[in-house]
Amino acid sequence: MRYLPLPRRHVPNALSLAALGLLLLTFLAVASGEVAIPLWRIPSLLLAVPADPIGQAWRSVLVDIRLPRIVLALACGAALAVAGCTLQTVFRNPLAEPGLIGASSAAALAALLAVRGIPDIAAVPAAFAGSMAALWLAWTIDQKWDTARLLLAGLAVNAISSGGLALLDDHAYVPRNATLWAWGSLSNASWLSLAWLLPALLTCGYLIWRETRALDALLLGDREAFHLGFDVLNLRRRLLALTALTIALTTSIGGVLSFVGLVAPHLARTVIGPGHRHLLPAAAITGAGYLLCVDWLARTALSAELSLPALLNLLGAPYLLYLLIKNRH
Looking at residue 180, what is its pLDDT? Predict the structure, then answer.
């Protein structure tokens, strides 16, 4: 795939502007919603409990409902973008991402089977096992780095996982809101869940970012990476494990949030280029902004909240078709 990235000297400025834009988007998302909150009141609402009833209602909406959801959207979007970027390099395939190869849906099914309710931290090991199994299956099948084989493997895993989720949806022992979570939702956000999710995601992101030189070497091919001094097999296993854990962490709270890991890395790569030292932070910013905007649209477009996975698919599927058409040869 051809890219026309920025000159290297402009990349830090581009990342700074992207981070500033993400901050502005966050402020707009905090202020807007079914209950609009004036921007100038947000700092005072966060610092102290207001005396007036309207201010108290605003603070309750802001602190207890809206801010946890926004922080969760930012965290999951950034993490899934980093995971998708890593998978595209590990598989040397521009279409590899957590949803397309079945890792997200397998993690959701495993977590739901393990806890039979809305998952929490206890569901992370099960989700990790499900996502790792899907990634390992895709890697085993796609040894020749063929896009068609990878897509077929992901289609099979997604079909099995979707069928299992549909069966659980009809089972009276599993709560209805649990299966709604499994299909993808940020409505379960809370400060308690974020207290352990954010440190875990930051740790996974840092460990992946430490492998930027190895990821750049993998772009050249296995033989070139080996001659550069990397143990390619162990490197791929380590990256797959970190990616699977990242997917498990996001899925255990937000369910299946497909296409974030596909769209964000490609958008970042067209601007930043293939070098992972700057590509991973750029993908994280892009993924965070993408999921934040889609979630904002889901909760503000109509009086009733729209389906977040449906909007992600509607916005992400055309980009997937574009990639398939562009790489048809």
Answer: 64
Domains of the chain with CATH codes:
66-326 (1.10.3470.10)
Helix (H, G, I), strand (E, B) or coil at 245: helix
Query: Are 287 and 77 within 8 A, CB to CB?
Result: yes
**Per-residue model confidence as pLDDT tens digits over 74-90:** 999 999 999 999 999 98
Average pLDDT score over residue span 56-65: 86
Burial label for 319, CB within 10 Å (0-12, 13-18, 19+), is: middle
Ramachandran category for residue 255: left, alpha or beta (phi over 0 → left; psi -120 to 50 → alpha): left
Percent of the chain with pLDDT over 70: 88
What average pLDDT score do residues 24-40 get? 86
Measured in whole angstroms, the distance separating CA 258 from the mean position of its chain's CA atoms is 8
Cβ distance 111 to 119 under 8 Å?
yes
Q: Give the pLDDT confidence of 168-200 residue by residue, as tens digits.
A: 766 655 665 666 666 778 888 889 889 999 999
Which contacts of 197-202 are long-range, i.e. CB under 8 A and separated by 24 or more positions?
A: 197/72, 197/75, 197/249, 197/252, 197/253, 198/71, 198/75, 200/124, 200/245, 200/249, 201/75, 201/78, 201/79, 201/246, 201/249, 201/250
pLDDT at residue 8 greater than cutoff 60: yes
Nearest to 113 by CA among 243, 249, 241, 252: 252
Find, among 323, 316, 328, 325, the residue nearest to 81 by Cα.
316
| Of the candidates 313, 289, 284, the residue with the CA atom closest to the CA atom of residue 85 | 284
Tokens for 235, please give them.
């490197």
Dump the DSSP string for 256-269. --TTHHHHHHHHHH
Torsion sign over Cα 145, 102, 97, 259: positive
